Structures are given as C-alpha cells and as structure tokens.
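Fold sample X.
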Amino acid sequence: MARNDINVLIGGEAGQGLATIGEIVAKALVRSGYSIVVTQSYESRIRGGHNTFAVRVSVDEIAAPQETVDLLLALNEETVTLHSDELSPEGVIVADESFEVTGDRCLRVPYKQLATDRYVNVAALGVVASLLGLDDELTLNAVEEAFGKKDAKVRGENRKALKSAYGWCAGQPSCVASLSPASKRAPRLVLNGNESIALGAISAGLRFCSFYPMTPATSIVLNLTAHAKEMGLVVEQAEDEIAAINMALGASFAGAPSMVATSGGGFALMVEGVSLAAMTETPIVIVVAQRPGPATGLPTRTEQGDLEFVLHAGHGEFPRAIFAPCNGEECFYLTRKAFELAERYQGPTFVLTDQFLADSYRAVEPFEIEQLSEVRCGAEASSIEEPYRRYAMTDSGVSPRLLPGLTKHLVVADSDEHTEDGHLTEDLSVRTPMVDKRLRKGDGLREQVVEPQFEGDEKPDILLVSWGSSKGAVSEAVSQIRRDGRTAAALHFSQVWPLVPEQFVERLGGAREVVCVESNSAGQLARLIRRETGFEIRRRVLRYDGLPLTPQFVLRELEGQP
C-alpha cells in the first residue's frame, strides 16, 4: 500500500558516508516531485561517533521533521540499538545480513553479494531508493552528479552496485510501503539553509567575507569559497574572530559589501566590532548560526538561545535589524534584505539561523534573480555639498557615505565620538546631537520591518507564537489542533528586531490563549514581546535539549501543560 508521507533515517558512524547517501536520496526525491525536510544529527568529531541523516518525504508540502521512523537504514549495528524503538507501527529496519537484529521487522540485505566493499554504500542507497519507488535511472544520475566526473571504471561499478540493489529488491516480498506518486512539478533546487544564505549574499553583491571556522556557520563560507573565483569574491580565513570582523569592516569601509559568519562563541569575540560598525556607520552583515551554549556547549546541536545576546551585543546605543529566516527561501531573501538595510542605514544587520536550519535540505523554488538588483555602495560624489561632512546631520540620520580614495573629497572616520566632518571630539555639545542622529536611523529600519506571518483561525482558542526555524513544527501542530476540532492559529516572526507592536499586538489580544514556542529555556521572544508591548505570554513550549522542534513535541507539551 502506497503512503503519502515517509520518514527515512540513515544511521552510522562519522566517515561511513551516510550524509552522501542521504543527500543523493534527497535530490532524487525532489527531482521525482516530492517535498522533503532533512534533519542531520552528528557528534563533534571527525571520525566515529553516532550520526544520523533523516529525510522526511511527502507528496504534500511539508516543513518540519518527524519523530517516528518508517524506514531505518542501519550502516552499523549501533544504529539498530539506538533507533529501533523509534520505528512506527509499519516501520522496517534495513541492515546487512550479518547484523544481529531480532524480530521480523528487518530486511536483511546481502551487501557483499551486491557490491564490493568500496561500493557497498551505493548498494545501500539503491536498496532505499528501490523501496521508496524511485526510478533507477534518475537515482543513477544523482549518484553520478554527487561523485563528479569519475573515470569510466568507477562509473561502471556505481551503476553495477545500484542495478544489483534494485534487482535484489525486486525479488523480495514487499515489506515497506512505497511512496504514492508525486504530482509533476517544475524543477526545484535542493538546498540547505547555509547554501541559501551564501547564494543570497552573492546575489546582493557580496565582495568580501572573513571568518574563523565555527560550526554550524562554516559551510556558509565554504559555499562562498566554491564560487569565489567565478563571482569575484574575496574569502579570508582570519586568525580569530576579532580579526575577522575588523577585516570585514575595513573592506566595507573601502566599498566592498562585506559579511562575517560565525556562531555564538565566535560572535562573543566580535562584539566590540559591532560597536565599531555602529560608531563609524559602516555597513556589515553578521550571520550568527546558533548552537547550544554557554561556552562550547553542544557544538553540533541546535538551539535558539542567542536572540537576546545578538539584540544587546555591543556597548552603547545604536539601531540594528535582526532577521530570523524559517526556510531556504527566507534564508536567501532575508540575507539579501540584510545587505540592503546595512548599506541604506550604514550599520550592522544580523541574520540569525541555527544548526537545524543550517543543515536541513529542502526543495526550494528557483530564485527569481532577474528581478533582483545589486546593492550599490556609497553616494554619488556629484550630489555632495562641499565641504564634505561624512557624518552630516540629516532628518533620517543617514549621512552621505563616500568611499575613500575614489573622489576628491577627504573621507575621515574615527571610533571616538566625532564631529560631522569625522574628526574626533571632546566637545560634549556635539555628543547628544550625534547620538540622536544615529538613533534616527532606527525609524527607517522600523518602516522596513518584515511583518509577522499569521495563519489559521481569526480570534482562535489558541495562538502559537514562534520565530526562525520553529515555524514548520508550529504550523503542523496548528493544523493538527484544528483537525481535532479547536480553533487555532500561528503567528510567526521572521524578523525579531525591531518589533512594531501595531503589526501584531491585536492578534495577541484576540486569542483566548497565547503560547510562545521557542528552542531555548527562557522564552526569549516572549520576554522581548512583553518588554516592547506589555503583553505577557505566560504559557510557553520550550525545547533546549539540542534537538529540533517537531510537531509531536509541541503537541505533547501542550497536552501536558495546564
């Protein structure tokens, strides 16, 4: 019997190639017309340690991971031990025939008969693809793409292993429900959150990125590096995060749209640079890919614990914008918007993501890049009144920014408080007007705020509030509540600062009960909403064990709370 929704979990040790198998399966599924959500779980080590790659696939659009497993591909015996209790009632384990697996819910595969040791993973991939009902040639194309232009012998062995797996599966009794046929769709991309952020930055005109490696942000920069030559980018690995942000500020000051990408521990070292960007009014985009802290915490797990940190990072008072995308499309477009606002309002803007979203592959509609414009740096020199004043007082707080060395005008900047022409000053009569000038840029940022997304019933019995990557789990939980007969809705924030109460406070007041759903222990968005609006969200669903939110977790917590 065919099913519309199946959750596949691939488990094994780091270094066994399970991520490669998972990525190929994900691409083959999307090219077959399905929707996917990938969840990766891995330990903080290069080899060894238990890793998983979960692919939830559906004929319908989905946006959240699933807890129960329908098809468990075990690349080692430990996977069976750790995950057999997660099987759904119809779930099946796929394992090598030599593994000790009890019970009759196991498909024992003679991998040594299907392929040589080097190509066993391709055979395992073929078994999974065959069980799901994927076309063998489509799967083979995905395999050849993944392994690049290998020599004819390697390509032949890959084909042989894959065909052997398909042939073997054809002779077995049906033990796994295959997928229902998917509707034909226009071609879509298979991207994770970090890949989408990198593409969004490139599309905005990024020219310089500096970094110090830190999971889960590093793959953003690795993707930029892969395209650096053809796109004219400079990507620089610095000796530490302090150097990284100062390099980026220098590049931006010179006229190159710039970005840094890090996680909470690395951002802690960058904080002084955030204030420097604010004082010198230098555009910069900072991506903070969250993971559990404090300190090194859980380096390869997920959390939404850095909202308050990023909001208050940097000494002194100055405006900023903080985006929190929920999927690949938003990773692309909100990263672009971060670059646009950084340049327009001449200061730091932030993109908050997390390990779950960073590593989660999704089916993404191709971006309409023909309609997009490149971010242009600096003002036209012909429009500048003489003498040039870099920090001239204006109604908007935005002063004309000329790039040093490109015009006859002298560009002066200083990290101390300064006069309109950029020279440092101890004149206290200048201090208050200059602070007010910088803060006026916040009015412009508030006019550009992305409005929270509302979906569901008007004036519902229960309203779930979320931000960032938690949207998918919350949306599915709301759908289930509505199917159970209650009115429900979701209010989701993809920009968490500035907050504009007029956009959402009426929604909060119109619900009989409001619950904030977050991946942290303190309810940081709930606290921020109370601070900015006076509305207290008393009931909260909080997850901070390092795992991503799921619809099942949200529903369990709601049922278990008064």
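Fold sample Y, listed below.
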Amino acid sequence: MSDALQREFVSPYHALQAQARARPDRLFLSAPASAELPYAPDGFAHRYGEALANIETLRAAYAAAGYGHGACVALLLENRPEFFWHWLALNALGVSILPINPDLRADDLAYQFSIAEPDLAVALPGTHALIKASGMARVIAPADAPPACRARITRQVAERDDPCALLFTSGTTAKPKCCVLSNDYFLRIAGWYVSQPGEAAMGEHETVLTPLPMFHMNALGCTVVGMILRGGTVVPLDRFHARRWWRTVRDSGATVIHYLGVMPAILLQLEPEREEATHSVRFGFGAGVDPRHHETFERRFGFPLIEAWAMTETGAGAVTSTAGGPRHIGKRCIGRAVAMDYRIVDDAGVDVKRHEAGELLVRQTSDDPRRGFFSKYLKDEAATAEAWAGGWFHTGDVVYEGEDRSLFFVDRKKNIVRRSGENIAVIEVEGVLMNLDAVASVAVAPVADEIRGEEVFALIVPRETPGDAQSLAEAIARACAERLAYHKVPGHIAFVDAIPVTATQKLQRGAIKALAAQAVGAAGTIDLRAFKARLRQREKAL
C-alpha cells in the first residue's frame, strides 16, 4: 500500500468500507478451531462484506443514540470480533475509544476513566462488576442497545485528525499517561507497516496472526489497520499459547506472525513437533528477541524475525525495522532510520560519537516534526511539553549507532519494567507496596528474566523482622494482586535493612537496579514467579 493511497482515507472505518465494497468476499477476521478460543471453540471466519454489515448496524444504533465527535467509549471486549465491530462503528462517527486491558483492577480503571472520561463502557458481561466497581455506572454488553449519549457532540462524521483511540502507556511518573492517537496516526503506522521492503514485503493475500492485545498500538495499528489497507486477513488470538501455537499458526494459514521477545524464548524450549515445519509463515515481526535466541530460532523454524522499534508516542513519526537492510542477528539491532531525524545524546544533551551509547531523540523529517506521533498526553500539557523539550521527542531508550548507521538497542533510561511487552512504572508498584502495613520502605527495579524479558523486583524494608520471610513475601504479593494487574505484582522480593538513597532522600535508581540484579537467585531473595502464576490461575478460575 503506497503512502499516497493510505492518504486517500479519512479513518480506519473508511479504509474498511472501501475494501468491503471492492472485495466483499475476502476474509477479514478468522481463527481456526485449533486456537481453542473459549468464546469460539469451532473458530470463526468473517469476510469484509459481512464485517461492514455488522459495523453499519452498530453505527446506525450509535448515531441514533447521539454519539459522535466529542464522545469516548471504553471497550472491554478482548480480541473478539465484537471489538472490531464496535470500534469501527464508533470510528465512523468520530468517536474515540478507550480499549481496556482486562487484567486491570478497579483502581486502575478508575484512574483511566478519570482521565479519558468515557461516556459509556461496552464490556463482556462477566466484567461488568469490575467496571461498576471502578465507578463507571454506564456499562452495556456488546449486544445491548447503547443508551443516549451525554457527551457534548459537535458532529457525527470522522475527520483525519480526530482522536481514534486513547492508549495508556507507562512513563516515569507514578501513573500511566494517556496517549491521544488520531486517525492519521493509525493510517500512517499501518501504511508504513504494509510497505516494508525485503523479507517483509507484503503481497495481496497476507494473513497476519497476532497474540498481542488490541489495547496495544502494535496490534491495533500495524496488524489490523495494516491488513485493512492491504485487504488482508487478521487472526486475533486471545493470547500466546505455546503448546498449541504451531497448530494454530499452521491451521490459520498465517503468512506473518507477530511476536514479543518472550515468545521465541518459550518456543525454543518446546520439543520439536510436525506443525512447526508445515506452516506458511514468511517472516515474524516484533521486538525484543533475546540475542542468544535469534539465530537459533530462525534456523529451527525457518523464517526471519524482523526486529522493529517504535513507541506508542512515536507511531509512524519515528519508527525503524531491520527489513530490507542489514539485520545484525544476535546484536539487538533495531534497523536504520527512514524518514525520521534522530540524535543520540548523553545526559547533558550533547551528541555522542558513533558507537557510544546515549538516549535516542527523534522527530519526523517533514515540515511538521510531530506528524505521525501521538497528539498529546491527555490532560497533561506539562508532560507533553517535557517529552518534546527542544523540539525533539525524548524516547528514554538508550541506543548506539553502528558503522552502517544501523541502530542497536542498549537499555532504557525510564524507570519502567518491560515484562512480556507490558510497560510497568516502578513508581506505581512502589505506591501500592508503601500502603501495606508490613512495608516500611521499598524500591522496585527491573531484573532480567529468561522468559518474560524483565520481571518486577522489590527491595523491601519490613516494619518488623519477619519470622517467616517466604510467608511474608507471599502475603505481600497476594495483597498487591488485589490492587494491581497481575503482570505488575513483584516476581522477586528481597527483605533488606535499608534502601539506597541520596543526601536529599531520593532513591538511587542506578544503585537499586544494580542491587536487584545481584540479588536475583541469591540467598535471602524470594522467587515469587511460580506463586504469582498460581495467583493468576486462581483468578482465571473464578
């Protein structure tokens, strides 16, 4: 899909409408029975013409209820087909959506709702109690008629720069920030995605399988809108299931898969099976593959892993991939910059020399350096201005440039844990821990994890010396699980006498990170990863 063609559309809805009229019988959404989706045990298949009919029915209902530009609707529909029908129906009217992570707790939701101020939540019936516990009274099931809109509406037609989706992303503050992402943002990132060169060049009949959630830019923008632009097929799984992965990939006919770094690590641990050699995958697209696994994975499973870099904030305004260029396998290469300006600077903001590591600053190469980026952090002008200080977007990612101008990822400056693709603000976890009676002081840091990429590590000064450290650690983790999403609960806890602080009592983040790294697996450190998994299993069983 050329850049010129993606500019013809006003919104993702209009792109789908055009594809449905031109190719009504082409498959839009599908999943095989081998995916074992709890809501579709026999799988499903929805063609573009059928999809448009479903969307138009909902669009008319929302329009009759008064929804339009100026309104926001929260969606907790996982990766089910209903999500796409509601999203695109609302998108047609200029309504923004707030896709909800089903792992969030009531407090998390209450915070997000306070920022996004959705007029309505459309959610699976089993989640209505959670939604209402967050303070949101207006919640309906996906098949229910929408109540009258209460927001101030200016029109019922979409425009290119309208907010399309509000996605929350972690930063260095105590609470996640809300990124406002426009129709233009999604069409541009999708256009970039389907125009990759080399091994990742896309044909007219691609089938892209993703286990990533629709509350992430990758799945919503690249995969779904990308396939809408191309007229391809999306296979939206509920999550990554290692044991049935290759059966699902084969049976879906996937030509492209999306991955996070955690997935190759897990798949390489499995015994060889017939399905892993009988698939149709041409390439994988993702980020964060462990350098030790990259070459081994490609050799065993028979296709390249195209590593890419972007952030929710940067979208297509600043994005890289290793497609069509030197991939430097096993070296954390994220590709070369195309149509973006960048600098690599030290802590003083001075450009570093080639091969030296520094923070990546980016902007678009155009008259509008912010085109393709997020519109703003909702209700946080100060954070938006800080992120764009000096006319450059400050990524917080540390990289270096090689001789051939390839960029190589080193680390993150931000105080976050990147666990299985989820950004976790350490200050958010620390805030919950500090409110527990057993905790006198605490510091949280990321530590390396073979499977998840990173895991949450908590250094805790207890109010009383624990008689049974294991029991206390489990009690703390259990209390965290009542207040935090599962992935944010500490996977390791070490009880210590003191936390490293500066003379002004600020946490010494560098020293804390080093201590946590040394403490993993050491005597006295409690490994809670298996306990954390059991908590998750019990939660799912309820």
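Sample Y note: The CA atoms of residues 6 and 191 lie 6 Å apart.
Also: The chain has two domains: 3-328, 416-541.
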